Amino acid sequence: MNYKIADTVFSLGDPGRYCRSLLAGYRTDLPEEFEISVTASDILSERQRSEEPISEGYAESLAVLRKLSDRLLTRDTILFHGSAVALDGQAYIFAAPSGTGKSTHARLWREKFGDRVVMINDDKPFVRVGGRCTVYGSPWDGKHRLSTNASFPLRAVCFLERAERNSIAPLSPSEAIHWFLSQAYREEAVASIFPLILKITDVIPSFLLKCNTDPGAVDVAWSALSDSGPVGGEKC
Amino acid sequence: MKLSSSFITHNYKDEQLMVAVGSKAKDFHGIVRSNPTAAFIIDLLKTETTLDGIVGAMTEEYDVDEATARRDALAVIEKLRSIGAIEQ
User: Fold this and answer.
1) Which residues contact A79 (CB under 8 A, 6 or more apart)?
2) pTM here?
3) Residues A151, A133: contact at Cβ < 8 Å?
4) What gap in Å lies between CA A116 and CA A135, rounded to an integer?
5) CA A94 from chain center: how many Å?
6) Which candidate from B13, B17, B22 shows the least CB-CB separation from A187?
7) CA nearest A173 in B: which residue?
8) CB contact, 8 Å: B26 with chain A?
9) A200, closest residue in chain B (CA to CA)
């Protein structure tokens, strides 16, 4: 059974029911570029890593994600911990540690801009890094299960911090590097991710958004993001 | 002496950049941007070495006298030590 995620076609040998259902929207008849196989030991390892008890099916899906993201690293594609939205066809990522409010902020964007917004992935989008960066939907999309099987050019990244009053400021490339590193989803892969982070901070503007959960947070964010230069991001 | 494994480097656009990762990142938030000479020394420190070893490599690689090389190497090593990047 073949699947296409982040412009990459892979086959999955005999996935369990949960995995098949999770990945159903990404089925393809295109020929695979490589195979992912998950062993009992991989599943056990995911269950051991998890803070809460998880089912075998869910553990299998996490193992698939881990192996896929390893492969995608070799294709300059990183797994980002954030909520990715597209507004008028351009992607913005809201990144923060769990519980900070990135999903909430993305929801406020949907409420304000309605149909102009596409939820690319609410939890862990893939981002291919290059002169232009592309954000991809995937089925690993958070507890609200929000994602779209589509890709959009990345225009800007916003790191979120909770605050009483809303404000946004651009991050220098040096500051952005540290924010990106702290969001690197896989600490053990940091050495491979570092070159990609240097590239992405070079071509894509980053901002620090301090925000509350009021709809006004979107206006503050948009005031800076809408001025953040042409999509594709080659900075002047 | 050796570069701490918590510090990783990458060459990007004619500079070598170095950051701390993992638990060391809590102590050092900066980015070390190194010119070619400092990068040369940092690269030597990725394997276990001594000051004399570094000075010897520098005098071979560059047109520099030993005293200058030693002074420059010490300055770089002290800077690295001050950010926790050297493990003995």
Assistant:
1) A65, A69, A72, A124, A125, A126, A127, A185, A186
2) 0.86
3) no
4) 17
5) 9
6) B22
7) B31
8) no
9) B12
CB-CB under 8 Å, A187 with B25: no
Tokens 């002290």 correspond to what residue?
B78
* Contacts for B63 with CB less than 8 Å, ≥ 6 apart: none
Tokens of A50: 């998890």
Q: Smallest Cβ distance to B21: which of A190, A195, A202?
A: A190
Per-residue pLDDT of chain A (236 residues; tens, 9 = 90+): 999 999 999 999 889 999 999 999 999 999 999 999 999 999 999 999 999 999 999 999 999 999 999 999 999 999 988 999 999 999 999 998 888 889 999 999 999 999 999 999 999 999 999 999 999 999 999 888 899 999 999 999 999 999 999 999 999 988 899 888 877 656 667 778 899 999 999 999 999 999 999 999 999 999 999 987 665 444 44
- The span from the CA of A140 to the CA of A123, in Å, is 7
What is the Cα–Cα distance from A208 to A224, expressed in whole angstroms? 10
What ranges in A33-187 are assigned the alpha helix state H?
40-49, 56-73, 102-113, 173-183
- Tokens 């969001």, located at residue: A183
Torsion, CA B61, CA B65, CA B66, CA B69, rounded to 10: -60
From first CA to last CA, the distance across chain B in angstroms is 4
Return the structure tokens found at A16. 């369990």
ipTM: 0.73
